[in-house]
Specification:
The protein has 191 residues and is an all-alpha fold. It folds into two domains: 1-96, no CATH class; 111-184, no CATH class. Helix content is 77%, strand content 0%. The chain contains nine helices and no strands. It is a multi-pass membrane protein.
Length: 191
């Protein structure tokens, strides 16, 4: 299926998910997304689940908070909606080549070029976000494992600064590589 069709279907499905409020319908939608992911096989489904595993504590926190405030149905709906939308987005990114997604971004930004605006930076941004999001999540997982190996306490905010430093370091390396290839102009520090 072409990348443009997948991304359009993802957009429509996400809008549809945000129109649903009933947790039963949202659970059914999530089951449909899981069935879609399973069409890729068990190995593919395990890889998809691993990449989304970091979301589970946040979604549980949302549900628990709403439960404590007497809005359990709303919290469950929010958690199910987010899990379904993010799982579907993950499925699309796992089944679509990065170059195809960048081409779709280039096509969608074509009208801006008519006004003389360069869309190359936006297209490159799409590629970098898709490429580096899993890498940053992997680094966060490694930092959490390192924390657990050294401390009996649970990991938490303590890994935020090291993760931010790693992300900034990676961004600087990518920027240097892009500049070396003539892809990005260095920032102007003169004002």
């Amino acid at each position: 299926m072409p990348a443009g069709v997948k991304l359009a279907a993802l957009s429509l499905a996400t809008v549809g998910l945000f129109m649903l409020d009933d947790p039963a319908w949202l659970a059914l939608a999530l089951a449909g997304v899981v069935a879609l992911i399973l069409t890729g096989g068990l190995r593919f489904a395990r890889a998809a689940a691993r990449s989304l595993r970091i979301l589970v504590p946040f979604l549980l926190l949302i549900a628990v908070w709403h439960g404590l405030t007497g809005q359990l149905a709303e919290g469950l709906a929010v958690a199910l909606r987010l899990m379904a939308a993010l799982s579907l987005a993950n499925f699309v990114t796992m089944t679509t080549r990065l170059t195809d997604m960048v081409a779709v971004a280039g096509f969608l930004t074509t009208p801006f070029r008519r006004f003389g605006l360069s869309t190359r930076a936006l297209e490159l941004s799409v590629a970098l976000v898709v490429r580096f999001t899993p890498a940053i999540a992997r680094q966060g997982s490694l930092l959490s494992e390192a924390w657990r190996a050294r401390s009996p306490r649970r990991t938490g905010w303590q890994i935020v600064m090291p993760l931010a430093a790693l992300a900034i370091d990676d961004a600087e390396h990518v920027a240097e590589a892009l500049r070396a290839r003539g892809g990005v102009e260095p920032p102007n520090d003169t004002g």
